[in-house]
Design a protein that fits this description.
By secondary structure, this protein is α/β, with parallel strands linked by helices. It is 26% helix and 27% strand. Bound molecules: manganese (II) ion.
Amino acid sequence: MKILLTNDDGVHAPGLKALAEAMTALGEVFVVAPDREQSAVGHALTLHHPLRANRIDENIFAVDGTPTDCVNLGIHSLLSFKPDIVVSGINRGANLGDDITYSGTVSAAMEATLMGIPAIAVSLVTSAEGTNYDAAAQFAVKLAAAAQKKGLPADTFLNVNVPDLPGERIRPPLVTIQGKRSYEGTIIDKVDPRGRNYYWIGTVDLNFKDIEGSDYHAVSRGHVSVTPLHLDLTNYNSIALLKKWDIF
Ligand code: MN
């Protein structure tokens, strides 16, 4: 099995190292990752300047671009084969609910899905540096093996969040739905030393709605959360409603 890893915390991040080590149990591991932190860049693709890939080890490339760039470069140029699976992570911090639309980690898995390659995004639920990447990596190996054996549904990838707990304290994995959060009061509005206003989008507490069956509901109770995601954002329930507008 050939495995391509990437992330958005940068090629030297501890979560990626733990993942790379654990994944060798499944096959040959290749890393194509940003050369620096690229968290919250979403699905950004670099089009207006060239990219450089620096081979920093036999199977490890550092790219001066986004996670989506890395998947593109990896699959279309740096690797001479199509990987069997792409795993993105392990991210330092959760990717739950609506937050996934900002996530570089999740977007890298999304990009692989667009290319028809099975993909998994893995995040550690921590508000600090994170300590239990190894336990999360062990789960990622188990899940990747299962995905390889069973195959993922078409156009679908998995968004995984693992509580930052020692392996023996992590509760069993649950299949979940994408949760919801409230975003109020997250902008810090201050005045700089020269009297001009500045705004800083603040980090917020995990103020998610505690929806039964959601990703947040699972991880906040110590379970691993696995949410199957697809790229079709159409709200099918709204189509009939919209068609009733007199402009259509
Ligand atoms: Mn990140």
